[in-house]
Amino acid sequence: MNIVVCVKQVPDTATERKLRSDDKTLDRDAADGVINELCEYAVEEALLLKEAHGGEVTVLTMGPSKATDTIRKALAMGADKAVHLVDDALHGSDALSTSYAMAQTLKTIGFDVVILGSESTDARTGLLAAMLAERLGVPQLTQANKVDIDGTAIAIQRLTDYGHDKVEASLPAVVSVVEKINEPRYPSFKGIMAAKKKPVQTLGIAEAGIDASQVGLAGAWSEVVDFAAAPPRAAGTIVTDQGDGGTGAAEFLASKKFI
Amino acid sequence: MDDLLRIDDQLSDEQRLIRDTVKEFVADRILPDVADWFEEATFPVKELAPALGELGVLGMHLEGYGCAGLDAVSYGVACRELEAGDSGLRSFVSVQGSLAMFPIWKYGTDEQKEEWLPRMAAGDAIGCFGLTEPDHGSDPGGMRTHAKRDPSGDWILNGSKMWITNGSIADVAVVWAQTDEGVRGFVVPTDTPGFTAPEIHRKMSLRASVTSSLYFDDVRLPASAVLPGVKGLKGPLSCLSEARFGILWGVVGAARACLESAVDYSTSRTQFGKPIGAFQLTQEKLAWMAVGLGQSHLTALHLGQLKDAGTITPRQISFGKLANVRAALDIARQARSILGGNGITLEYPVIRHMNNLESVLTYEGTQEIHTLVLGEALTGLAAYR
Ligand SMILES: Cc1cc2nc3c(=O)[nH]c(=O)nc-3n(C[C@H](O)[C@H](O)[C@H](O)COP(=O)(O)OP(=O)(O)OC[C@H]3O[C@@H](n4cnc5c(N)ncnc54)[C@H](O)[C@@H]3O)c2cc1C
């Protein structure tokens, strides 16, 4: 089985994240890049599927050249090879143009199943899985907390407020996963050493069959018009209990229209 | 906290990934519970050993037999991140990899290697290293433990060892004993009749680490139990050089954890209307802690590069062990003072590191012994006896 797992590098959530003042895109140089947390679950699921069904796991990353750190981590966890889509023309792509670029690349490299995290910690749109499936003309099985594959049949379970959904389709398909699905492994030291020798193919937009006018800032359908820092949190109200604390708390809640 | 000297920029991509992996493991699996282990004086070996094995930490710098074969700087960086968790964790790893696996790997027969190394690398078998005795610490050459051949060719081992890390939890002990041919190393399965290893209690340091005595009462070992590759004290001393290299990196991690804790505390704790970090006295402490940390870190990196180049000498390792443990202990004590009353509780990592470092100062050659090594290196005059 040809398993492709999409992995994104995002700014470390532990550091302050910034937008650039010039083109209002994310400032990727201002913070250390780390693997998007949900992508680790996607890699783990891809490796589990490979361990159960055989085949090969390919990492697909679209991102600047420093995203190689993230690719290396996925390879060290056990993926077999990687494709890095990197091109200055991609800078500023929105969700729609990203899905176009990724879909074109997936068509170029081929796949039986595409696995990705259900959202990234930087943009948090959660749109990519659905957009990819649509562009590729294959079924989408989103927000999976369990994946089963039997021959060409694929089924996932999705937790909901009322229980769980069971979604079935046939391969090829796109699957997005949530963190309940598994416990990602640490890259082992042997895996880290082995990753050095694994093939990483670098593709520019031309090689991936991507039309430059449909990607990047110019090709984006959405635009960041303006942004401002969130206002600092105002000081809270402290109700000191001098026998009338309950009344004080109730008055406060009423003033905020909570009760 | 920023690394002022950006020393990690010198690391390769793989070394950085090793750092991040161990750091993540320590954050997930060690830091949440280590204060409890310290308080209860336990090391949860059953859970941790297989996990460390899976990661590839055990015997990480050895080649073959399921080991990762890392370069020296990677080994050092891994020790640094382990000891940023707790010196007991790093001690477990040092003893397993450098003191128990290393002599088998370097001096053992193929059968000994096949029997023990893969299981030890996986964390399925635990090793310990018995050199120190109740009456012979800094001067191991005077050891009384001895092995005699009986007519059948078997070895009969008698004597005792003390302060043996992992002793009571070990499946195999590498024991150094006097023989008619001088000091020899023996691979002793701990279930051999006559072998006992009671735990040493009431320690106030390295509490999240098992320390034991070993007793050998007519322990009968086959001829194949001896390590054929080495005779004399250079056998155990070569193992100590490996482990000391891990220590001189490890303590950089403990010191960093203390400085981080102190910086954090000094910017959030307010007295006399300002954060205590705004007082010049506190800043002077923090500045010197950062200087000590940076210098010991540079020493570690330099020695790592020498080890990778294959030119490192025992004297250079003594330099690093002496300088870096001393620096770490000073940093821990300063951090403790900055945390005030909170500095004495296990709610913060500082006193745990500080107490641990007292053991690290003593084991693997006391600071006095390493001072004498440097004194001899400078003057050509040995002052040990
Ligand atoms: C927690 C812990 C774990 C340990 N784990 C192990 C282990 O796994 N395996 C193992 O074999 N050993 C282990 N040790 C033992 C350790 O290596 C010894 O404690 C150390 O070598 C010192 O020996 P000693 O305690 O007998 O002190 P001593 O040698 O009696 O020294 C006492 C003091 O005298 C000083 N001194 C001694 N000789 C001189 C001299 N010539 N000049 C000046 N000063 C001198 C010392 O520096 C020290 O300050 C461990 C110790 C501890 C505390």
From TrEMBL, chain A:
Gene3D superfamilies: HUPs
Residues covered by the Electron transfer flavoprotein alpha/beta-subunit N-terminal domain: 23-212
InterPro entries listed in its UniProt record: ETF_a/b_N (IPR014730), ETF_b (IPR012255), ETF_beta_N (IPR033948), Rossmann-like_a/b/a_fold (IPR014729)
Highest taxon above the source species: Bacteria
Cofactors, names only: FAD
SUPFAM superfamilies (UniProt xref): Adenine nucleotide alpha hydrolases-like
Keywords: Electron transport, Transport
One GO cellular component, as annotated: cytosol
MF (Gene Ontology): electron transfer activity
Quaternary state and interactors: Heterodimer of an alpha and a beta subunit.
Family: Belongs to the ETF beta-subunit/FixA family.
PANTHER family per record: ELECTRON TRANSFER FLAVOPROTEIN BETA-SUBUNIT, ELECTRON TRANSFER FLAVOPROTEIN SUBUNIT BETA
Biological role: The electron transfer flavoprotein serves as a specific electron acceptor for other dehydrogenases. It transfers the electrons to the main respiratory chain via ETF-ubiquinone oxidoreductase (ETF dehydrogenase).
Protein name: Electron transfer flavoprotein subunit beta
From TrEMBL, chain B:
Cross-referenced InterPro entries: Acyl-CoA_Oxase/DH_mid-dom, Acyl-CoA_Oxase/DH_mid-dom_sf, AcylCo_DH-like_C, AcylCo_DH/oxidase_C, AcylCoA_DH/ox_N, AcylCoA_DH/ox_N_sf, AcylCoA_DH/oxidase_NM_dom_sf, Glutaryl-CoA_DH_mitochondrial
Pfam family, one: Acyl-CoA_dh_M
Recorded GO MF terms: fatty-acyl-CoA binding; flavin adenine dinucleotide binding; glutaryl-CoA dehydrogenase activity
Superkingdom of this protein's organism: Bacteria
Domain Acyl-CoA dehydrogenase/oxidase C-terminal: 232-378
GO biological process, one term: fatty-acyl-CoA biosynthetic process
Keywords linked to the UniProt accession: FAD, Flavoprotein, Oxidoreductase, Transit peptide
Residue stretches making up the Acyl-CoA dehydrogenase/oxidase N-terminal domain: 12-124
Cofactor(s), names only, from the UniProt record: FAD
Residue stretches making up the Acyl-CoA oxidase/dehydrogenase middle domain: 128-219
Family membership noted in the UniProt record: Belongs to the acyl-CoA dehydrogenase family.
PANTHER family recorded: GLUTARYL-COA DEHYDROGENASE, MITOCHONDRIAL (PTHR42807)
Protein name: Glutaryl-CoA dehydrogenase
